[in-house]
Design goal:
Blueprint (H helix, E strand, L loop, with lengths): L12 H12 L3 H17 L5 H15 L11 H13 L3 H19 L5 H15 L8 H8 L3 H12 L3 H16 L7 H7 L5 H12 L3 H9 L4
């Protein structure tokens, strides 16, 4: 009948089954592959109806959390916030971002018995340490490594550590430089480069602001046994 709206088709059952399974077993590769397949399915069938996609996303969230309340990895408050974000999302792209952020937080909360703040800080620190000499390294790189959106990582990191990512990265670079400068034979320009600074003069300014002495002054103090 002309003009009649046809109901949206049901998403592939295997994706509705495999996505929660991948999340619950912690398989990032499987989650990425299946999540990509689901949203590609929406695109291929030209499904842009946010209401339909929203219901699919909520259905997946409920499936992921389908377990005894005592085993819930995230609080009722956190899940309620996600529900509100999902209900407010107006496009497929926004809904996908909400879902990926939900899964990222789910994984963070499931890791051992460590407090959430320590879990996030340790994961970010591991990525930063692996790229400490990378001059162009940024929050976007950490977000990509942790499979979380940059904006959400920025918000979560600030909320759980009280620091901005830039403050944290600077502190990590300074601590690395501090360790390298313990060797009086090491040139300041080399330390700057290994700590992720292209300009040794700017590095010296940052180091003095952080430690209240220049790199050269620190090396002299270390050599004299006073640092």
């Amino acid at each position: 009948m002309a003009g009649k709206l046809l109901p949206c088709p049901e998403p592939p059952e295997e994706l509705l089954r495999d996505i929660p399974a991948a999340v619950q077993c912690g398989s990032r590769a499987a989650f990425v592959q299946n999540c990509e397949a689901l949203f590609a399915w929406f695109v291929e069938r030209e499904i842009r109806d946010a209401t339909f996609i929203r219901m699919c996303v909520l259905r997946l969230c409920y499936s992921i959390l389908k377990k005894p309340a005592s085993d819930m990895p995230m609080s009722y408050y956190e899940f309620t916030n996600f529900q509100q974000e999902i209900m407010a999302a107006a496009s497929m792209e926004e809904l996908r971002a909400c879902f990926e952020n939900f899964v990222s937080l789910y994984w963070l909360r499931r890791q051992g018995e460590k407090p959430p703040r320590r879990i996030l800080t340790e994961r970010v620190s591991e990525v930063v340490q692996a790229h400490i000499s990378d001059i162009d390294f940024s929050l976007d790189d950490v977000a990509a490594a942790l499979f979380i959106s940059p904006n959400y990582l920025r918000q979560l990191f600030k909320q759980e550590t009280g620091q901005t990512f830039t403050e944290f990265l600077t502190a990590q670079r300074m601590q690395h430089a501090h360790m390298l400068l313990g060797n009086p034979q090491t040139k300041v320009c080399d330390v700057a480069e290994q700590a992720g600074y292209a300009d040794s003069r700017y590095f010296s300014v940052c180091f003095k602001k952080f430690y209240h002495m220049t790199p050269s002054e620190y090396q002299a103090a270390a050599l004299a046994g006073k640092a």
